[in-house]
């Protein structure tokens, strides 16, 4: 029974990351209509909260009850993680390339592993270290940063990319604290409550309301919220409830693989040999994590 529960947690976490990997399909039409990266973050946050609060009010009203002091964690996840990691991620993409943006975003598992060690005393095992190294290397191959490398990266772009990974990691840290008390839906709903409030005050989305006369804007906005956000965060948070934060974040590195496959199937992109190698490395890192602790039970202190 315990093994079945663990397998379910792994599947939920990977499924959530896969939904995140589809985000490019829904963002591109918004950019084509003149929305900025910050506008896209606002659309994602606001539409997601509206969908979640309707769902919760209709079917899970009892799960809306929370402790006031836990809203510090919801606000932290909503503002310092969701809003900011999206902003830095989209900015790196606009200033450089998607390959660089995704690779730097996936420094996130490294930050999660370090922060989980500091705050939750999670063991940093040799197996986890190897899995993390393989996952990051695999991501670099998948997005094309390896084997040829990429030079002439402005320092501010590199810094924003690293900040995107750090803010991305904060979601696991803030959410892990409250997963024992609330469902994944509750956590995600209140997280996006604070994201949407923050974005309403800081973005210019209200000034571009006329852009919503186009059907493709509505379709993209709803799918961005429903698939790449609601489904993704609920699935990931459900898995996180039964996994160490560092394990969940490493499993989530399947996201760039899904992004590459989506590009091949829908955007006419081609898969290179080193990308196949990268996919294999990331999948093997997920297998290492799913197999549990190393038999040697050694860890770094």
Brief sketch in words of this structure:
The protein is built from 13 helices and 2 strands; from the N terminus they run H-H-H-H-H-H-E-H-H-H-H-H-H-H-E.
Task: Please describe the structure with a list of short key phrases separated by commas or semicolons.
mainly alpha, 13 helices, globular
Helix content: over 70%
Order of helices and strands: HHHHHHEHHHHHHHE
Biggest pleated sheet: 2 strands, antiparallel
As an assembly, this protein is single chain
Name the beta content range.
under 5%
The largest sheet has its strands arranged as 1-2
| Distance from first to last alpha carbon | 32 Å
Rg, rounded, reads 19 Å
Explain what the structure shows:
The protein has 301 residues and is mostly helical. 72% of the residues lie in helices and 1% in strands. The chain is built from 13 helices and two strands; from the N terminus they run H-H-H-H-H-H-E-H-H-H-H-H-H-H-E. It has helices at 2-20, 23-32, 37-59, 71-95, 98-105, 108-119, 126-142, 155-176, 184-202, 215-240, 245-251, 255-266, 273-290; strands at residues 124-125, 299-300. The chain has a two-stranded antiparallel ribbon. Helix 1 (2-20) packs across helix 12, helix 3 packs antiparallel against helix 4 and helix 4 (71-95) runs antiparallel to helix 8 (155-176). The longest helix is centred in the C-terminal third of the chain and has 26 residues, at 215-240. It starts with a helix and ends with a strand.
């Amino acid at each position: 029974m315990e093994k079945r529960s663990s397998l379910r947690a792994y599947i939920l976490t990977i499924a959530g990351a896969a939904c995140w990997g589809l985000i490019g399909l829904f963002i591109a039409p918004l950019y084509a209509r003149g929305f900025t990266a910050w506008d896209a973050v606002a659309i994602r946050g606001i539409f997601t909260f509206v969908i979640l609060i309707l769902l919760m009010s209709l079917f899970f009203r009892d799960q809306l009850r929370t402790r006031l002091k836990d809203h510090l964690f919801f606000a932290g996840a909503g503002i310092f993680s969701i809003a900011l990691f999206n902003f830095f991620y989209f900015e790196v993409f606009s200033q450089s390339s998607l390959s660089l943006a995704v690779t730097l975003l996936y420094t996130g598992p490294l930050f999660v592993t370090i922060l989980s060690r500091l705050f939750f005393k999670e063991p940093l095992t040799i197996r986890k270290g190897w899995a993390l190294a393989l996952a990051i290397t695999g991501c670099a191959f998948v997005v094309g940063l390896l084997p040829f490398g990429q030079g002439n990266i402005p320092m501010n772009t590199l810094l924003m990319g690293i900040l995107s990974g750090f803010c991305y990691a904060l979601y696991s840290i803030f959410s892990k604290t409250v997963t024992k008390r609330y469902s994944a839906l509750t956590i995600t709903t209140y997280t996006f409550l604070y994201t949407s409030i923050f974005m309403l005050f800081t973005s210019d989305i209200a000034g571009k309301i006329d852009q919503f006369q186009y059907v493709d804007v509505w379709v993209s906005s709803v799918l961005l919220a429903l698939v790449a956000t609601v489904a993704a965060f609920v699935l990931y948070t459900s898995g996180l409830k039964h996994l160490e934060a560092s394990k969940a974040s490493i499993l989530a590195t399947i996201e760039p693989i899904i992004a590459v496959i989506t590009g091949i199937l829908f955007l006419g992109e081609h898969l290179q040999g080193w990308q196949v190698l990268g996919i294999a490395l990331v999948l093997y890192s997920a297998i290492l994590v799913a197999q549990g602790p190393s038999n040697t039970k050694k860890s770094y202190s």
